[in-house]
UniProtKB/TrEMBL annotation:
Residue span, CbbX AAA lid domain: 65-127
InterPro entries assigned: AAA_lid_6, CbxX/CfxQ, CbxX/CfxQ_RuBisCO_ESX, P-loop_NTPase
SUPFAM superfamilies: P-loop containing nucleoside triphosphate hydrolases (SSF52540)
Keyword ATP-binding attached: yes
Native source organism of the sequence: Alicyclobacillus dauci
Keyword Cell membrane part of the UniProt annotation: no
Lineage of producing organism: Bacteria, Bacillati, Bacillota, Bacilli, Bacillales
UniProt name for this protein: CbbX AAA lid domain-containing protein
Length: 128
């Protein structure tokens, strides 16, 4: 790598604690990665906006009750952790939207002649 140091770039990304551990596993690693950038976690409002954007990108909207339930889930995840899953911040929120979309599809499977609004709106019950 020394011969190509001006032509080669490596980017490592991960959670702060795990990256510190990784860099400590070999005394030569910290000097090989002298630039380290820490990105702070998103706050509850930013995570909620990410969730709304993820839903909108799939052409869904959230009912008022769904928004309230989602905000409670986010607040709980930030204060208590995300349960059995490691809390991965924005990825956790996107996964939550994907689960809600699947739950929504299952819920509407037996609905006779659903209206357009039914098809496009995630309800609180979809956020399990």
């Amino acid at each position: 790598m020394e011969d190509y140091k001006d032509q080669f770039i490596t980017i490592l990304a991960g959670y702060e604690r795990e990256m510190k551990w990784f860099l400590s596993t070999n005394p030569g690693l910290p000097s090989r990665f002298p630039i380290q950038i820490h990105f702070p976690d998103y706050d509850a409002q930013a995570l909620f906006q990410i969730a709304k954007q993820a839903a909108a990108s799939r052409q869904y909207r959230l009912s008022t009750d769904a928004e309230l339930k989602l905000r409670r889930h986010i607040k709980h995840a930030l204060t208590e952790g995300a349960g059995s899953e490691p809390f991965s911040n924005a990825r956790w929120v996107r996964n939550m939207i994907e689960r809600a979309v699947r739950q929504h599809a299952v819920r509407l499977f037996d609905v006779q002649s659903p209206q357009r609004d039914d098809l496009l709106t995630l309800q609180a019950v979809d956020f399990v």
